[in-house]
Design brief:
Length: 482
């Protein structure tokens, strides 16, 4: 039996399906935290009366039976050619059924059409006539005050909407046009999942390096630091066909490059490192002051806002680390909270961050600055102080995005983790008990005020501390290059 997620994986690479079916399936930990299921809110939002709610493991016969007896049915399960689907809502109307989806987004997006069309195809196979499709998504303007208002928190629509707010088209019309016969795919999925082995070559891999299974599929493979596989470009397959395997051999004629890619090619043609001396010196001179702070936040993202003043998909920052350099000495401050610790977080941050000098963060304006703006909205009494911090922000990642520096040990990536592992391998995140941002989030979700969790708390603090220490080391490394 397959689920829609198996189909999606199979379409991206059949070997992912084979690996998952052969027992390598990883536990799924959702990125977005839900304080309760959207399914129960759909019942309230649709104002359904006389309804039936299906359960995990129920048979299709039971689902069809419920459908014949109730006007509204939620969470029914259907299966065709081994593909099992769960349907959020079905409403019997005069000429057929209205089909309801829950969408984890603040928009009814046309990108969901293929997901919807797979459900539509299954229902069509069992002759359930769908006459309208609705999507329930989050209202991004909703701000929670006290009890959650399901009516205001969601929007129900039968249209796909463009990001501009204009209607893209009727969901059913778009979905029915996109719907295609899934039987050949399901037959192939069945065949692949029964294979004893599934050998694959690098040339056949549709997503080399970036796929999370790369280390499993190509265990022990050393591509080297200068391999063309570390270079992102639509021409890559063509170059490989021409026998070009090293970045330094990429033909530059008519090639449009980002600044970072230019630096990558230059590094491959020099001695493994490119430094734009003038631009880097200028950048360091403009940033360097007697007091310099380096900060990093960890946060959890909530679909349904759990606390007052929060909107859908707002976050709760639960941890920060600050390293600051003052008079040549490095100091450290940190915070780790539990539950709704937003105000504690703000007060501690304002108390501990130096009152002057630049504040460096990695991807500062795509992460930490957004978090502070959200907090400033939620706690207007701290707005001025928080916005002043943003005015002092400097994005450390920009040095690499702008191609001021590239070292081939970075292997085509610009994440803080990749850079620190390239320049200070002894500081590897792999040595930490918590070594990934999402690991930190899952541990925070289960954190309670209990001495037994002291080890977890220590691991969380070490992880966040590592991020800001890494930033200090990266900055010092950049200084050493000029
Ligand atoms: S590494 Fe390549 S071949 Fe292996 S599962 Fe991922 S995409 Fe498929």
């Amino acid at each position: 039996m397959f689920h829609i997620s198996d189909l999606r994986q199979f379409l991206s690479c059949p070997r992912i399906l084979w690996l998952n079916q052969s027992g390598d399936k990883q536990t799924f930990n959702p990125f977005i935290q839900m304080i309760h299921s959207m399914n129960q809110d759909l019942i309230i939002k649709t104002k359904a009366k006389d309804y039936f709610i299906g359960k995990q493991g129920m048979s299709m016969e039971d689902s069809l039976d419920a459908l014949s007896k109730y006007e509204w049915c939620f969470n029914l399960r259907f299966e065709v050619h081994g593909l099992r689907i769960k349907v959020a809502g079905l409403h019997r109307v005069e000429d057929g059924f209205e089909l309801y989806f829950n969408t984890m987004s603040v928009l009814s997006r046309v990108e969901d059409a293929s997901y919807f069309s797979n459900h539509y195809w299954v229902l069509k196979q069992i002759r359930i006539p769908v006459v309208k499709i609705f999507s329930m998504y989050f209202n991004k303007e909703y701000v929670r005050h006290g009890e959650l208002s399901v009516e205001d928190c969601y929007v129900l629509t039968s249209d796909f909407i463009k990001p501009s707010g204009h209607v893209q088209g009727d969901i059913l019309s778009i979905v029915s046009k996109r719907s295609r016969d899934l039987e050949p795919n399901l037959t192939e999925m069945n065949r692949v999942s029964k294979l004893e082995s599934y050998p694959i070559t690098l040339e056949e891999c549709p997503n080399p390096i970036k796929c999370e299974k790369f280390g499993i599929c190509f265990k022990g493979l050393d591509l080297g630091e200068n391999s063309i596989y570390h270079f992102s470009n639509p021409m890559k397959k063509e170059w490989l066909k021409q026998g070009i395997t090293k970045i330094q051999d990429i033909p530059l004629d008519n090639l449009v490059l980002s600044k970072a890619q230019y630096a990558q090619i230059m590094a491959s043609r020099m001695e493994g490192r490119f430094v734009d001396q003038r631009a880097l010196s200028y950048w360091i001179d403009s940033v360097r002051q007697t007091i310099m702070s380096f900060i990093d936040f960890e946060w959890d993202t909530y679909g349904i806002p759990p606390f007052d003043q929060m909107r859908p998909f707002d976050v709760v920052p639960f941890q920060y680390s600050i390293h600051y350099i003052q008079d040549g000495l490095v100091h450290h401050k940190e915070f780790l909270g539990q539950g709704d610790c937003r105000e504690e977080f703000i007060m501690s941050l304002l108390e501990h961050i130096p009152s002057e000098g630049p504040i460096l963060a990695y991807n500062a304006f795509g992460a930490e600055a957004i978090r502070l703006k959200q907090l400033a909205f939620q706690f207007p009494q701290y707005e001025d102080d928080l916005l002043k911090l943003i005015n002092r922000f400097v994005d450390l990642a920009q040095v690499f995005i702008d191609g001021l520096v590239y070292d081939e040990r970075m292997k085509g990536a610009y994440s803080l983790k990749r850079i620190i592992e390239a320049i200070h391998p002894e500081l590897s995140y792999e040595n930490l008990a918590i070594s990934h941002g999402m690991d930190a989030v899952y541990h925070y979700r289960n954190l309670v005020d209990d001495e037994e969790q002291d080890e977890v708390k220590a691991a969380l603090l070490s992880y966040c501390r590592m991020d800001t220490l890494a930033m200090v080391k990266v900055f010092q490394w950049l200084e050493s290059l000029i």
